[in-house]
UniProtKB/TrEMBL annotation:
InterPro entries: Haem_Oase-like_multi-hlx (IPR016084), Thiaminase-2/PQQC (IPR004305), Thiamine_Salvage_TenA (IPR050967). This is aminopyrimidine aminohydrolase. The keyword Methyltransferase does not apply. It is an enzyme of class 3 (hydrolase). GO terms for molecular function: thiaminase activity. GO terms for biological process: thiamine biosynthetic process. Belongs to the thiaminase-2 family. It comes from the Eukaryota. It comes from Hevea brasiliensis (Para rubber tree).
């Protein structure tokens, strides 16, 4: 299980689309496709994060969880505004977007995770993994030696910046705390959910890259 996780995590954060941004060879039509599709994704991600917030308010024994998740929701507010301005800069229409299969599948997966019977530990693990993949992927495009095109720097900064990294570590801490106390049944569900997130992330990059 651990080997599989590690392999998939590397696959999700070092996927060819990300590597093409990092080495400057990225096809801008791929980037635009990603932009339009990710906006649609984020509009489903917001209610998912809201559902995690509700679970935190009911289940959590640590008062700080709510603040961290609420901070995440606040940054999604900025993110939606950013998508709108970025889309107009790139001439990507945001209404009537044809939602690609991989995106539909990912959105359906999130919908299922919003159900009240899904344990807080499982939902927060998914939430952390979803954010962490973007953080690690885009931070990789900002490292020394990367040749990320200047017009994509802003996108990479959005998720690759140190503050976002700190926020991901806060989510990870919450998830770890919940998992330490979880039953083996919940632990298994969280592991499976984590792997599913990675698979959906890989599919999402593949779709953007035009290989799906
Ligand atoms: C597909 N995964 C996808 N889109 C995002 N915006 C994030 C993760 C991080 O918020």
């Amino acid at each position: 299980m651990w080997a599989k996780k590690h392999l998939l995590y590397t696959g999700a954060t070092r996927q060819p689309f990300i590597l093409s941004i990092r080495d400057g060879s990225v096809d801008l039509s791929s980037f635009k496709r990603w932009l339009g599709q990710d906006y649609v994704f984020v509009r489903e991600f917001v209610p998912f994060v809201a559902s995690v917030l509700i679970k935190a308010s009911k289940k959590s024994d640590d008062g700080n969880d709510m603040e961290v998740i609420l901070g995440g929701l606040a940054s999604l507010n900025d993110e939606i505004a950013w998508f709108k301005s970025e889309a107009s800069k790139w001439d990507v229409p945001l209404s009537n977007t044809v939602v690609h299969k991989a995106n539909q599948n990912y959105r359906r997966f999130l919908e299922n995770l919003m159900l009240p019977e899904v344990d807080y530990a499982v939902a927060i693990t998914a939430f952390w993994a979803i954010e962490a993949v973007y953080q690690e992927s885009f931070a990789h495009c900002l490292e020394d030696g990367s040749k990320t095109p200047s017009e994509l720097q802003d996108t990479c900064q959005r998720w690759g910046n140190e503050g976002f990294g700190e926020y991901c570590r806060s989510l990870q801490k919450i998830a770890n705390r919940c998992l330490e106390k979880a039953s083996s049944d919940v632990l298994t569900k969280a592991e499976v959910t984590f792997l599913r997130v990675l698979e959906h992330e890989v599919e999402f990059w593949n779709m953007s890259h035009g290989c799906a």
